[in-house]
Write a structure and sequence with these properties.
The protein is α/β, with parallel strands linked by helices and about 325 residues long. It has helices at about 20-30, 50-60, 80-95, 110-115, 135-140, 150-155, 170-180, 190-195, 205-220, 235-245, 250-265, 285-300, 315-325; strands spanning about 5-10, 35-40, 65-70, 100-105, 120, 155-160, 185, 230, 265-270, 305-310.
């Protein structure tokens, strides 16, 4: 006798996707042959639909994820609202039969009736996973245990500080981390240079290694960060050093520099308006100004938006704070 093919459906905004949602999905995966997840659009919470759907696809690549463009925004249990919601879901399914409807909300009752499916409610009391998307939006750092690393990484606003040597990047990055109670990524190139330079020079392979290791360390720090991660330089700077040293760069380093164009959410450039710190490992104030021009020219060529920082450390912290507090620069505007 042929066993009936079972199809489960669940829906939500998943803003952001958390372990309560994972419990729901994993319960369904274990109970049905096929699972569909419908991700509702959400004009109020500024996490793009594609990002939210992408989280689920990446974590559960074998299930079907549908992006519910122009989904209804009204919620509640009036006859009119329930009918709107039911009609929308039925339209999305386009005649496809669903055997189980999964939810952790009271709407599971009326939606399952409309779908002629089993009403399968999971942890509706939130005892197993005591969390909500609202709590995570209000304080993602405190509630990070309830968020998958792939999701948490996207909730962090990644800030990079660029600028020629002796423009105050390291000091500022460290101070910003203290100011915002978060992490900062030191320039790995400095550490590597001190241990491997020969006559103040590095090989093409050395420079690629610097960029690769800097990225690896930065990725690890994201998961420890609180709202922001401040990084001292990126692969674009390393690429420019390679051009400066050798007149060329390895293709792999050039690729990392290209990837760096979208790796960070906000770019700041520290100006040369502070005194030059003439240490033995640097090449002089004239070289500082020349390299600063190369950085700015490169950013303009790549058509990347950036903010110039000038003045004392305190003045620069204030400038950064104002940019980060602006809604258009807040990652997903969670709060």
């Amino acid at each position: 006798m042929r066993v009936k093919h079972t199809v489960g459906l669940t829906l939500g905004k998943f803003a952001p996707f958390h372990k309560g949602h994972q419990l729901l999905i994993e319960t369904a995966i274990n109970e049905v042959d096929e699972l569909i997840v419908l991700v509702y659009d959400d004009p109020i919470i500024n996490i793009p639909l594609s990002i939210r759907a992408g989280w689920i696809r990446e974590i559960y690549p074998k299930i079907t994820v549908i992006e519910g463009v122009n989904s209804p925004n009204d919620s509640g249990y009036t006859a009119e609202i329930m009918k709107i919601q039911e009609d929308y879901v039925l339209k999305i399914l386009d005649g496809r039969t669903v055997s189980h409807f999964y939810s952790s909300e009271p709407y599971g009752e009326h939606m399952s009736i409309a779908l002629k499916a089993m009403n399968r409610q999971v942890d509706i009391s939130r005892h197993t996973v005591p969390i909500s998307a609202t709590k995570i939006r209000n304080d993602s750092f405190t509630n990070k245990e309830f968020v998958h690393p792939k999701v948490y990484r996207d909730l962090i606003t990644k800030v990079v500080l660029l600028g020629a040597p002796s423009t105050g990047k390291t000091t500022l990055a460290e101070k910003l981390a203290v100011h915002f109670d978060t992490q900062w990524m030191p320039e790995y190139g400095r550490e590597y240079w001190e241990n491997h330079q020969i006559n103040k020079r590095l090989t093409l392979e050395d420079l690629l290694k610097i960029a690769e290791t800097h990225i690896e360390r930065e990725d690890a720090l994201v998961l420890k960060s609180n709202q922001f991660l401040f990084s001292d330089t990126n692969a674009i700077t390393t690429y420019l050093f390679s051009l400066d040293y050798h007149g060329k760069a390895l293709p792999a380093l050039e690729d990392l520099a290209k990837t760096a164009e979208s790796r960070h959410d906000i770019i700041f450039v520290c100006d040369t308006d502070i005194p030059y710190d003439d240490t033995w490992d640097r090449s002089g104030d004239v070289k500082r100004k020349e390299f600063q021009e190369k950085i700015i020219d490169d950013l303009n060529t790549r058509n990347l938006k950036y903010y110039m920082l000038r003045g004392t450390v305190e003045e620069r912290i204030d400038q950064v704070s104002k940019v980060l507090s602006a809604k258009e620069n807040s990652k997903f505007n969670l709060t």
